[in-house]
Amino acid sequence: MRHPLSLQSRQVLYSMRSNGVGVRDIARYLRINPSIVSRELKRNRSSIKLGLSGVEKGTLAHELAKRRLKERKRGKRGAILTPKVTDHIIEGLIAKKSPEAISATMESAIGTRVSCATIYRWIHRDALQLKQYLYEKGKKRRQRVMNRRGRFQSQKAAATKRSHEDRSDEAILRKEPGHFEGDTIHGCKNSNAAIVSIRERKFRVHFFEKVPNLEAGTVTRCIVRLLHRIPSELRKTLTFDRGSEFADWEEIEKIFPELKVYFCDSYCPYQKGSNERGNRDFRKYFPKGTNFDAVNCEDVRRVQNNVNQNPMKLHQWRSPAEVAPLLAAA
Q1: Which domains does the chain have, with CATH numbers?
Q2: Which is higher by pLDDT, 29 or 1?
Q3: Which of 11, 26, 222, 306 is least enclosed by beta carbons within 10 angstroms?
Q4: Which SS3 state, helix, strand or coil, does residue 127 take?
Q5: Closest CA to 148 of 199, 191, 195, 189
Q6: pLDDT at residue 271 tops 60
Q7: Which sign does the torsion angle of CA 61, 66, 69, 71 carry?
Q8: How far apart are CA 11 and CA 230, in angstroms?
Q9: What is the CA radius of gyration of the chain?
Q10: Residues 41, 36: Cα–Cα separation, whole Å
Q11: DSSP tally for the chain: helices H, then strands E
């Protein structure tokens, strides 16, 4: 005779298990056979630590069990239902990977593959607790407002700024490496610290470095340090927006005569979209409002390595670090 567990029973079971209660004691409390408890933990418990409460673990396990029963009645058991697959998905989500990237690399990792649509469907229908690991989380986009940063339109250096449209075809079409985009990532309002962000356009290798403030001299010195790490043959162009922190751009060209600096149009961040996209990956680790005064350089370097090791569809699901190891190691 079958003894299906109810939602409440599973919540009690996983709560007791989280508190270190043994299988036989749980079975005695629920008045069921210990083998039922053992099978339940084997089939539906995730081996990945999510930081969920016992009740939340029981709810997630109950949804997984209902899905498995439904698939069995239809005569088809999808790979998504196996603990091996779900654990791999959960591990990938915790590591900041998108469902598409998880799907694309799953077969080489565990020998099984499900589509990214299946992963999304499973999360939204049966594993709502995992929505917190989706970067977008279904949030609506708000209309952009005017950037409050200063501009250097009226300064002497502004007269000779080059437009991004003046770059060569090799730079615009990403035909060769060595063309970069630069930006800054701001922290909370009570902090002056920020992150300087530079990304290579062809291979998408990204560099991040913390600065104590966004004064033009501070940012310029940081960019010079980053560029010194890059081989001279790969220093060709660098494209900024028109923020006042880039007002000393001519100093960069004096130090690196092989490199030319270009600028996007005002309020057009999409014109350096590679960098903006990489900054979003950085924000997965340090969301908006982060106080960068409390973030050390080792943490920034660790996140840089993680971003450069994320598989990309552009590279046939290899990472920037794999396609350009020398540049990523700079």
Answers
A1: 7-133 (no CATH), 156-328 (3.30.420.10)
A2: 29
A3: 306
A4: coil
A5: 189
A6: yes
A7: negative
A8: 54
A9: 25
A10: 9
A11: 14, 5
pLDDT in tens, 140-179: 555 554 454 555 554 544 547 899 999 999 999 999 999 9
Residue among 182, 168, 178, 164 at smallest CA distance from 246:
182
d(CA 59, CA 10): 7
Q: How far apart are CA 40 and CA 267, in angstroms?
A: 55
Decide if 18 contacts 54 (C-beta within 8 A).
Answer: yes
Sheet hosting strand 179-186, strand order edge to edge: 206-211, 194-200, 179-186, 237-240, 260-263
Residue 72's identity, in one-letter code, is R
* Cα–Cα distance, 89 to 99 (Å, whole number): 8
* 303's tokens: 């996140």
List CB contacts of 319: < 8 A, sequence separation 6 or more: 308, 309, 310, 311, 312
Q: How far is C-alpha 17 from the chain's CA centre?
A: 32
CA 265 and chain centroid, separation: 27
Q: Give 121-135 pLDDT, tens digit per residue.
A: 888 887 888 888 887
Between CA 261 and CA 265, with CA 262 as vertex, the angle to 5 degrees is 155
Is the overall model pTM greater than 0.90, yes or no? no
Average pLDDT score over the chain:
86
Angle of the 54-73 helix axis to the 7-18 helix axis, nearest 10: 130
